[in-house]
Amino acid sequence: MRKITLLIFLFLTAASGFCQVGNYNQFPGITPNHTLDAKLENISFAYGLRLLESDYDGPFVRLRRASDNAQMDFGCNDVDMVDVDAINTWRAGSNVFVVTWYDQSGLGRHAQQPVLSRQPRFFPDPTNPYIVPENNSQYLDTQTNIQIATNAGANATIVMVLRPVERVQYNFGNFRNNAERWTPHMNWTSGQVFFDPGFCCATNRSFANRAFTDQWSQYTLQRGTTSILIRRNNTTQVSGAFPNRRYTLNQNFFLLAANTGGNPNLTSRSPMAEFIMYNTDIALSIITEIEEDQIAFWDL
Prior knowledge:
Strand order of the largest sheet: 1-20-9-14-15-16
Number of domains: 1
CATH class: Mainly Beta
Low-confidence stretches: 1-17, 20-31
Keywords: Signal
Oligomer: single chain
Helix content: under 10%
Strand content: 25-35%
Signal peptide: 1-21
Largest sheet: 6 strands, antiparallel
Number of helices: 3
Number of strands: 20
């Protein structure tokens, strides 16, 4: 059953549909609780199809309606999730595509795609809404250099919710060549999850994930200075040493594909619902709190 976090603190505006938790707390003596409250230090960006931080009162996504190319922002419903009912009313049966996935970190690093043909599709599933490319040219650009999104092309922590499929694909990040990259495969055609944060290919970088193919799951990927950590659904799959090498190019960090000199490389077909990234290897205690909240909210 979906976790409903203190519904009485949410206010849904008729005009915009955005969450107004920070401005409309009916019970000031009690603080609303969301997964990123008091967890914004060292954050790079936070994208979600639900409310991630109590003070955020903006939209979650800007969508384009294929029938007439009209655009509109959408925020949350009364259970913290993106307002699928409002989206369905507005789209009137038309397919919808993502123009902007808004950053809830407060840094304004919104993931964008102004080119119509390159916009990934949004699926308004009432239980697990998601974003996914439909062809090899669709992706979102975080407008943030990978050297900033990570610690100079090395350390970072990603805590996310997606549904992996088996395909030759990169789910996010950057690619220079077969040796230098900062990106994962979730899943590769072998059913494995591979993570190459800085270069390819270390021995300690993968685990078998075929049993979770096409299932919504929570994943954590972390690169320390000389270590790697990969977790699925709050359980460690890979942990150990990793070579102290970094990704050296200055280019923007992509979502749903790897950035290869400004172009998408091996675009992902794994649907994504949430993506939180820090530019350092944050403490396992913080990771665990975020993981548990993602698992509870999305009923994983």
